Amino acid sequence: MDNRSWKVLIADDEPDILEILQFNLLREGYQVITAADGNEAVAKAQQARPDLVVLDIMMPGKTGVEVCSILRAQPALKDTLIIFLTALSDEATQIKGLGTGADDYISKPISPKVFVSKVQALLRRARRTESKALDVSGLLIDPERFVVEREGNAISLAKKEFELLYLLASRPGKVFLRNEILSQVWGNDVIVGDRTIDVHIRKIRQKLGIDCITTVKGVGYKFEL
Known about the structure:
InterPro entries: CheY-like_superfamily (IPR011006), OmpR/PhoB-type_DNA-bd (IPR001867), Sig_transdc_resp-reg_receiver (IPR001789), WalR-like (IPR039420), WH-like_DNA-bd_sf (IPR036388). This protein is α/β, with parallel strands linked by helices. Helix content is 41%, strand content 21%. It contains 8 helices and 12 strands. The strands form 3 sheets. It has a 5-stranded parallel beta sheet, with helices on both faces. The chain has a 4-stranded antiparallel beta sheet with strand order 6-7-8-9, covered by helices on one side. A 3-stranded antiparallel beta sheet has the order 10-12-11. α1 (15-27) links the parallel β1 (7-11) and β2. The protein is globular. The termini are far apart.
């Protein structure tokens, strides 16, 4: 897909970072919107409905975590890809961010070229999900509409939660290794820890309300009922 069809919102309170990241994405053909604080990020996301939102965590007005939580609560933005660009890399901060519905983290400092390559990889994977709907164990998982239904009721999942569920449900009974999950859902371009998978699995279980994902200790996860 032509990069000109991708719309990216970057929110950061450091003008130099905004300028250089915007310049490099524009050079690759992306549409770029910028915001200097959390309140502006919310307003521009609601107006522009970007494909990807990049949020600094420590911003005035509203933090990146608060912005993420607000966007995820809005139907029009619930499937928007959201990643944090932050120097806060401690585990507690990552778990809190992922718990609000963020899809990933990019750690500061990062070179503009690496940033662009990561954005490209994330957006490509967002559109790479197979188009075949799954109907397994009372769950309808439709990647064309990004919809999960159980007994006729729609269940809202964040993008990475959906992709993880789709992967596991595509092969019921198969044990997916942790590194296999990381590779297929997050890709080799993004470095994430094991806790990232655990947080997403926990959120999926809570939202589905059924125990359909089994933990195989020290190995990985499998889908079964």
